[in-house]
Amino acid sequence: QGHQERRRGDDMLSSRHAVAMATRRTRMYIPASKRFIGNDSIKSIDEKIQRIQEAQAMFATYDQKTVDHIFRQVAHAANKQRVPLAKLAVEETRMGLMEDKVIKNGVVIETSVSAYADMKTCGIIDRDTERGLIKIATPVGPLACITPCTNPTSTVIIKSLFALKTRNAAIFLPHPRASACSHEAMRICRDAAVAAGAPPNVLDCVEHPTLELNRHVMDHPGIKLIVATGGPGMVKASYSTGKPALGVGAGNASVLVDDTADLKMAASSIVMGKTFDNGVICASEQSTVVIESIFEEFKSLLQKRGVHFVYGEERKKLGEFLIKNGAINPDIVGQSAQTIAQKCGIKIPSDAVVIATEASEVGPHEPFSFEKLSPVMTLYRAPTFNEAKDLCASIVHFGGEGHTAVIHSNDENRIAAFAAAMPAHHLFANVPSSIAAVGTAFNFNVPPSLTLGVGTTGGSSIATNMTPASLINVKLMASRQEHMEWMKTPPNLYFNRNCTREAIADLAKPYPGGKRDTRAMIVTDRAMVEFGYCAKVQQMLEQIGFKVAVFDDVTPDPTIECVRAGAAACEQFKPEVLIGLGGGSPMDAAKGIRVFYEHPEAKLEDVGARFIELRKRTCPFPDTGSKVHKLVCIPTTSGTGSEVTPFAVITEGTHKYPLFSYRMTPDVAIVDSAFCDNLPKSLVANAGVDALVHAIEAYVSVASNDFTKAHATRAVKLLFEYLPESYKNGTIRAREMVHHASTIAGIAFANSFLGITHSLSHQIGGAFHTPHGEHERRVCERVKRD
User: Fold this and answer.
1) Ordered alpha helix ranges (H), 137-242
2) How do beta strands 133-137 and 123-128 pair?
3) Which terminus of the chain, N or C, has less C-beta within 10 A?
4) What pLDDT does 618 receive?
5) Nearest to residue 23, comparing CAs of 185, 189, 181?
6) Are β-strands 133-137 and 143-146 bridged in parallel, bridged antiparallel, or unpaired?
C-alpha cells in the first residue's frame, strides 16, 4: 500500500463499500464480562482519577527496559484485536469502512513500534560528554485523552502506546458516539499492560461521557496534560482549562495539480485518499485546484476512477445537505457516496465512489469550500500556477489553518514555492494526503500519529504530528520516498539432472577453521521412503561421512504436532544439517522443524502472526542457524517452489498459519529433475498449474520489480513451452525444464509475493482437501475476470 498507485481504484473502492455495508448489518457481540454498565458520576470520576494518580506515582519509577517490554506487549495484544475493534467501531459509529479501520488499527500499531520502540523515554536519554549535556526524561502525566468518533479505536490504541512508552497514566474521554468501541480498545491495552507489569489502573476511561463529566476531568487538579484529538468544541475546551494541552484543529486540505504532474497518479492518489475510510481522516483531500490547461483531461481521469460530478439542482441539494447552520452536517461524516446521494435525494451511478462538483468561490456562502469529512470533493480551476497556489491558500485559510495542503507536481521549484506559501504545517507532494499525513505510507520518515497539530497558525500548541516527544513546532515538507527492496535467494542453488550427488558432496566441505558437519536428518514422508528416494539420498550422505537419521512422519498439510514431533527427534539426534525431501509438505515441515527445534519456547500463533508490512511485524521472527547450520531442500515435484522461498504453511486444528520470514529461506536448494521421472499425470498437471500461477501472481504483484518480473516471465515461457509435453509424454527434457520453471517461479514470488488466487485456494484446499492446482486454476480464472 505504501509503494504502489491503486490501479483499479473504482472496483477496489466499491468492494470496500460492500464489505462495510455488510458489516453494518451484523451486530458484534461483546461478552458480558467486557460490557460496562452503570452511569459515571462526579464521585466515580474522582475515584478513577485518584487511582490513576496512584498508578502514575508508581509508573514513574519504572526503568526503560520494563517500559519497553510493556510497550511491545500492548502493541502485540492490540494488533491481535485489530479486526474485532474495527467491526465494533463501524457498528457503533456508523462511519467509515470496516476494512479501512482494520488497516488503520494495524498500521498505527506497526508504525508506532517501528518508529518508537527503541526511543529513550526514561531517565537519561542523551549524554553529550563533549559539550557536557545530559538530557533526562520524566513523565508529565496523568493525561486526559480526548478521542474522536471518526477514528475511535486507532486513536485510543496509539495514545495508549504513547502514554505507556513515556510512563504516563491516562484517562480517556471518548466521543459519546464511540464510547463502547473506545472503552473496549482501552480495556485491551490496559489488560495487556498490567499483564506485562504495568501498575493497575494505568489506563482508564469515562464510560458514559457527557460534556459535564469531560469538563470535570479536564479541570481536575490531578490531570496534568490534556491530549485532544476530537471536534473543535472539545479541543477549544481543552485549551480553556488553563492547563498544558496538545490539540489538533479542523482540516480543510487543499490540493494543487499543475501541468507538470503525473496526472494518472495524481487522480488515483486523490481518489484513494478521499475514499479511505469514507474520508473521515481530517487530512483527506477536500478541494482540488487544477491548472486551466489540464483541467478537462484531469477531470476525465477522475471520472474514470469513479468520481461523479453534479451540477444544477443536484448540486444545490447536495450543498444544502452538506452544510447545516454554517457547519458540516454530522449525517454526512464517514458515509459512502451512495448513502450521501440517497440521503440528499440525488441519483448517481452505482459504481460512483466520490461525489464532486465545480466551484469558483471560497467562503461561508459556498458550501463546497468547507471541510467535508466524506467522499465529497470540490474542483476549482486556475489560469496559472501562482493563481492556483493563492486559491489553495485561501481554502486552507477558510477552514483548515495550520493543517494540510498537497501538491501534485514534478517541478521542484514549484513544490518549494507551494510549501512556503501554504498556511499549513503538514505539506505533501505527490501522495494521498489522508494516508501520508498520519505517517503510515509513501514516506515512512513522517512520524506516525493520529494527532496532527496545527501550530499557532490554527490555534494549537504543536505544529507537528504528536509523538512521544512532541514539544516544539516544526514545519515539515514530506515528498514520496520509496524504501529499499531486495532479491533474496538461497546462498547455494544446484540444478540439472542428476546433480544431487555433487551437491550433497559440498555439504561435507569444512568451514573456515577446519570443522565440518557430520550429522544430517532427512525430513520426508512415507511415499519418498517407498519410492526409494529417501534411501538414495541417505546413501549419498553416508558415503561422505554423515550419520543420518530419518523423520518420515510428514503428512499433507503438516500440522504443528508433526513439526513438534520433528523438533523432538532433532533434539534427540542433534543434526547439523536438515534436509527436506519431497513435495511442498516435507519442505514446509523441515522449515518449521528448524524454527521450533532451535526455539522450543516459540508459539505458532506468534511465529505466524499476521502483519501488514514485513519489516514492522509486532512479533519478531526467531533467528535461525544456532543448531541447524544448513537447511537443504530437495523438491520431488514441480510446483511449490518451496525449495527457494521463505514461506511455510503449518496447520493447528482447523487453522492454517502461513509462516513467513527470510530467515526460513533454505541455505541449499537442489533442483534435480531425476526425482520427477515417475510423477503421475494428475500431479504433473496440478503442480504445473501451481507453478504457473506463482509466476503470474508474482508478475502482477504490487511488490514486483525488474528482478522478479524477469524470473516470472522466464518461468511462464518455460511452462508454456514444456508443461504440455511433460504431461502428455513425460520426456526427460520436458520434465527437467518444468522442474526448473517451478524453482524460477519460486524465486519470483519469494520476493514479490502472491495474491488473492493463492489466498482463496489455500482456504478451499484446507476446507475440502482438494488438490491445490486443480481449484487454483478455477480461482485464477475468476480472479482474472473480476
Assistant:
1) 152-165, 179-195, 211-219, 232-239
2) antiparallel
3) C
4) 79
5) 181
6) unpaired
